[in-house]
């Protein structure tokens, strides 16, 4: 007796009941899997990009906005601050490293950042072709920018004010590509890096020298004492703002976590309903097939075989539902990635696999076992004589 073939035949013989169970289960698995993948990849990217940055110095405003704009480059800056005042404040033995950032212009939606060579060092960005910028209006381009815009060594372009293509274009000055970076899996892949003088000079008017201002300063301290003393001093005694990425990012993920947890609860509720649907389908199938099961017993089938037959039908349904849900989550990641890539230049991988998905498979298998348990026990206890006599 081939239990696999018989149980599969029983599943496909009731397409409507099986379809209802599969739709519910695949929806639940797809939602949970997609949430797990998105949360996991966002945390990885946020953690990698903030590594080595203890504090961000910038203009007064929202500390989270300052972090998002200067570390992740997904928000508008809070304003500019004088470079000399920032340097004076951070000329402190507790400061190990500081990286200035000047920005406000872009090219086809990708931010142009005036900075020092310490920024690509911080993100461990390696050159693929060419060299790092040396003079104003020379740029070295991140891997994602070069790939999406087709930039090559020697190409020229004009910057636009802000991050929109339809804003004012600075067509009086060319930027030239002198280098291309390899992919670093960091926010640096989304940036066009140049000298700070490029950002200052592009906004100079009528030959006047532009003020030497920066948008933010990324700071790393020598010891935890710096994180205790310097941010408080800046926030209390200056017109500037010091934001701590560790605090703001944790706060952001706490807010995101509440929404993700709520959606996961809804998905688990759908999964529970799908388990009830599997139970009802198997229970109805048992009532319709009592005579068939009794014949199988009379032809030598054991109680254990009938028990396994019903159990395997439940497992077939949940395994197929898990597979469909996993494919559904990948399709959702693909669509979300297109949106994030177009609007924020961040990428999500639909091919990544995380351990939580194995736990999800285990939960589906348990659901299938519990849903099929009562029908399987009743099938094993089928009364041969009474059932056959009833016809």
Could you please describe the fold and organization of this structure?
With 391 residues, this protein is α+β, with helices and mostly antiparallel strands. It folds into two domains: 3-46 and 251-390, no CATH class; 55-243, no CATH class. The protein has 13 helices and 13 strands. The protein has helices at residues 3-12, 15-50, 63-72, 83-90, 118-122, 143-149, 196-202, 224-237, 245-288, 290-298, 303-343, 356-380, 384-390, and strands at 55-59, 81-82, 95-107, 110-115, 127-130, 138-141, 156-157, 160-161, 175-181, 192-195, 213-214, 216-221, 240-243. Strands 1, 3, 4, 5, 6, 7, 8, 9, 10, 12 and 13 form an eleven-stranded mixed β-sheet that branches. The protein has a two-stranded antiparallel sheet with strand order 2-11. Strand 3 and strand 4 form a beta hairpin. Helix 9 (245-288) packs antiparallel against helix 11. The longest helix is centred in the last third of the chain and has 44 residues, at 245-288. The two termini are 23 Å apart. The mean pLDDT is 83.
Which characteristics define this entry?
eleven-stranded mixed β-sheet, elongated, two-stranded antiparallel ribbon, 57% helix, 391 residues
Helices and strands in order:
Layout: H1 3-12, H2 15-50, E1 55-59, H3 63-72, E2 81-82, H4 83-90, E3 95-107, E4 110-115, H5 118-122, E5 127-130, E6 138-141, H6 143-149, E7 156-157, E8 160-161, E9 175-181, E10 192-195, H7 196-202, E11 213-214, E12 216-221, H8 224-237, E13 240-243, H9 245-288, H10 290-298, H11 303-343, H12 356-380, H13 384-390
Parallel strand pairs: 4-10, 6-9
Antiparallel strand pairs: 1-12, 1-13, 2-11, 3-4, 3-8, 3-12, 5-9, 6-10, 7-9
